[in-house]
Amino acid sequence: MGCYSKEELDMFRHGEMSVLSRICCKAHLKECEACQHRLAELCEDDLLVKELQQRVSVYEKINFDNKKILTSEL
Ligand SMILES: [Zn+2]
């Protein structure tokens, strides 16, 4: 059996694969370092996205607070 693409591994991760595909994928992951690595990369991407989202929300909060200060001064 061939290796899984990032898209497929992403589906596996989110439980969007059929039960049979998931069992095959799991078995493959146990033996394939390349796919394990790809799966780990997906998890790293997730962390990065989360971090970016947090930064955006912090930025929005600062922006909001600044507006509040500005409007309260007026
Ligand atoms: Zn593989």
Major sheet size, sense and barrel closure: none
Count of structural domains:
1
Q: What level of helicity do the residues show?
A: over 70%
Report strand %: under 5%
H/E element sequence: HHH
Q: Sum up the overall morphology in one term.
A: rod-shaped
Mean pLDDT metric: 90
Total number of helical segments? 3
Low-confidence regions? none
The set of bound ligands, ions and cofactors reads: zinc ion
What does this structure look like?
With 74 residues, the chain is mostly helical. The chain has one domain (6-73). Helix content is 84%, strand content 0%. The chain is built from 3 helices and no strands. The protein has helices spanning 6-13, 19-31, 33-73. Helix 1 packs across helix 3 (33-73) and helix 2 (19-31) crosses helix 3 (33-73). The longest helix has 41 residues, at 33-73. The chain is rod-shaped, with a radius of gyration of 21 Å. The protein starts with 5 loop residues before the first helix and ends with a helix. Bound molecules: zinc ion. Zinc ion is lined by residues 3-4, 28, 32, 34-35.
